[in-house]
Amino acid sequence: MDSRIVVIGLAAAALFAVTACGAIEGTPSPNAGAGTEPSTSTGTTSATTGTTSAGAPAALHDADPCGLVTEEDVERAVGALDGEPRRNDLGTARSCEYEVDKRLLVVDVRTNVGLAGVNATGPVTDQTIGGHRVKSWVSQGGTCFFVLGVTESSRVDITLQPKTGGVECEPAKRLADVVEPKLP
Q1: Would you say 175 and 73 are in contact if contact means Cβ atoms under 8 Å apart?
Q2: pLDDT tens, 61-75?
């Protein structure tokens, strides 16, 4: 391979990294929060950084669905992961999928529809988790849904498919409890 192409490629990658990270403040830390207890911060918003003091995005459109929970959070709430989380955007939802003990767990970030747009397939329970309104239900197939409203036009959906022949909503509820303080 021509060494000029390699040099140009490396220079372009370095320029991209500097440009992409130019607005990020703080010290990077790999696996930040891994093995630590959840923050008890109040989650107030910082006007200078655009994030909350709990590290949450100031607006949901800034949220990465795979960044709302750590792999350790998922394992504590739901069970052992069967593989790496994978990003799988579908329609207007930015999604992160986890395979957990032969079940599918999905965290969706939706910034074009709020709780009013919920199209439930079973009786809906209205509740509050932390400071967010939540709609939850179980589909006929036993899939548990916890939908956390963020604004009138945004929400985060947590969906957990059951093992064959069962309904397991408590693990999905535990994960909703982990996600909620990280929301704007």
Answers
A1: yes
A2: 888 999 999 999 999
C-beta separation of 53 from 59 below 8 A: no
The CA distances from residue 20 to 14, 16, 140, in Å, are 10, 6, 45
Residue 179 buriedness (CB in 10 A; 0-12 / 13-18 / 19+): buried
Select from 10, 146, 152, 168 the least CA-distant residue to 68: 146
Q: Is 25 exposed, middle or buried (0-12, 13-18, 19+ CB in 10 A)?
A: exposed
Q: What are 113's two structure tokens?
A: 């529809």
| Angle ∠(165,171,176) on CA atoms, nearest 5 | 135
Average pLDDT over residues 26-41: 32
| pTM of the predicted model as reported, rounded to 2 decimal places | 0.68
Tens of pLDDT, residue by residue over 79-101, are 999 999 999 998 889 999 999 98
Please state, in angstroms and rounded to a whole number, the distance separating the CA atoms of residues 141 and 163: 10
CB neighbours (10 Å) of residue 124?
15
Tell me how far apart the alpha carbons of residues 14 and 29 are, in angstroms, rounded to a whole number: 20
